[in-house]
Amino acid sequence: MANRSETLFTEAQEHLVGGVNSAVRAFRSVGGTPVFMRRGEGAWIEDEDGKQYVDYVLSYGPLAIGHAHPEVVEAISRTAANGTSFGAPTALETELATVVKGIMPSIERIRMVNSGTEACLSAVRLARGYTGRDRILKFRGNYHGHVDALLVEAGSGVLTLGIPGSPGVPAAVTEMTLTAPYNDIEAVRTLFETYGDTIAAVLVEPVSGNMNCVPALPEFLQGLRTLCDDSGAMLVFDEVMSGFRASLGGAQGRYGVTPDLTALGKVIGGGLPVGALGGRAEVMDYLAPTGPVYQAGTLSGNPLAMASGLATLRNLSRPDVHAQAEAWTTRLLEGLQARARAAGIPLVTHQAGTMFGLFFTDAPSVVRFEDVAECDGERFVRFFHGMLEAGVYFAPSAFEAGFVSTAHDEAALSHTLDAAERVFATL
Ligand code: PMP
């Protein structure tokens, strides 16, 4: 008998492209049927057949304090009762901006948008407008949303689906996009020698979460800062994923390297659609209406989304809350390592705050995109399905990071580690 997910997926495919609204959800790289979810609470989600899973996807990052947190639900409900959108300024937008600025001091001014893609798109336009230059530089395996100019050697679903770039992106649009290997500062220096005075921006995921989870080497980020300073290019940190995760203050808080601009998304909306672009006031004020670079959005700064983000960030910024989730992440990885070792499975793990990566490889370290690509993909697929069956939900791709929330507790940990012990034994 077909389970509910199979039935629902068959039906969905009649109406939605590939049965999904975001390519990465389709289980293409792991095979099988995507599991349809119907509710979440804390660290747990429940599928349409009533089966429970410990969730390490957390909507691909946003749910830093877990599913349906009472403070978030209350904030959204209270706000919705007064109307859902005005197309006029609201106090909530300034409130969220103030909280974000308090957490990330590099941000002096902020523009709310509706997704991480929009934040990155606007970052590129603003950097080009501000510097009067056209070239941008990005890294192999980094993903910055489905922005035409940035769909070059991108990570996440672009990797998973094996699409090299994408049809529909004219060559003329990517002509001004340079790419370099991640964590290779010498390659960047060489590009700057040739193109330095024409580069508007370097975009980087300071902790990459779209080639699995690969933190930048500290000297790589410092090197980028120096090259940008010397050449007048904007350093743009794409902290859509690492923001409020790599540390509460994001990767910039963790590494102590200050970008000119920061793209945010995911946690800033606490599970509702929000992205944001922030940075130095002088640069940000180049955006309309104070400056000439156009940017706008009907639902930007939406009250429900602001309320959800505010409730999430206020909770997460209370003393020790983020630190506890980080400590829990460390215990998860140590537990997985111990069980993999006992089963004779070579496993490399990465942690950046509440983001993590699991790599089935006997290589000593995983630093570049090529290192990720060489991991045992077939073993990952068996691990993924084994854990899914055992009630543990990881992203259905070896190129996605894992996430922990403040709601993950002892029960979730022991459920996960017991499952891993059984699954490692079958690999
Ligand atoms: N940048 C990074 C680093 C991301 O991880 C993502 C999404 N996974 C994006 C940008 C795009 O964000 P969105 O999906 O909200 O458009």
TrEMBL record:
<keyword id="KW-0627">Porphyrin biosynthesis</keyword>
<dbReference type="InterPro" id="IPR015421">
    <property type="entry name" value="PyrdxlP-dep_Trfase_major"/>
</dbReference>
<feature type="modified residue" description="N6-(pyridoxal phosphate)lysine">
    <location>
        <position position="266"/>
    </location>
</feature>
<dbReference type="InterPro" id="IPR015424">
    <property type="entry name" value="PyrdxlP-dep_Trfase"/>
</dbReference>
<dbReference type="GO" id="GO:0030170">
    <property type="term" value="F:pyridoxal phosphate binding"/>
</dbReference>
<comment type="subunit">
    <text>Homodimer.</text>
</comment>
<comment type="pathway">
    <text>Porphyrin-containing compound metabolism; protoporphyrin-IX biosynthesis; 5-aminolevulinate from L-glutamyl-tRNA(Glu): step 2/2.</text>
</comment>
<keyword id="KW-0808">Transferase</keyword>
<comment type="similarity">
    <text>Belongs to the class-III pyridoxal-phosphate-dependent aminotransferase family. HemL subfamily.</text>
</comment>
<dbReference type="InterPro" id="IPR015422">
    <property type="entry name" value="PyrdxlP-dep_Trfase_small"/>
</dbReference>
<keyword id="KW-0413">Isomerase</keyword>
<dbReference type="GO" id="GO:0008483">
    <property type="term" value="F:transaminase activity"/>
</dbReference>
<keyword id="KW-0963">Cytoplasm</keyword>
<dbReference type="InterPro" id="IPR004639">
    <property type="entry name" value="4pyrrol_synth_GluAld_NH2Trfase"/>
</dbReference>
<protein>
    <recommendedName>
        <fullName>Glutamate-1-semialdehyde 2,1-aminomutase</fullName>
        <ecNumber>5.4.3.8</ecNumber>
    </recommendedName>
</protein>
<keyword id="KW-0663">Pyridoxal phosphate</keyword>
<dbReference type="InterPro" id="IPR005814">
    <property type="entry name" value="Aminotrans_3"/>
</dbReference>
<dbReference type="GO" id="GO:0006782">
    <property type="term" value="P:protoporphyrinogen IX biosynthetic process"/>
</dbReference>
<dbReference type="InterPro" id="IPR049704">
    <property type="entry name" value="Aminotrans_3_PPA_site"/>
</dbReference>
<dbReference type="GO" id="GO:0005737">
    <property type="term" value="C:cytoplasm"/>
</dbReference>
<keyword id="KW-0032">Aminotransferase</keyword>
<dbReference type="GO" id="GO:0042286">
    <property type="term" value="F:glutamate-1-semialdehyde 2,1-aminomutase activity"/>
</dbReference>
<dbReference type="Pfam" id="PF00202">
    <property type="entry name" value="Aminotran_3"/>
</dbReference>
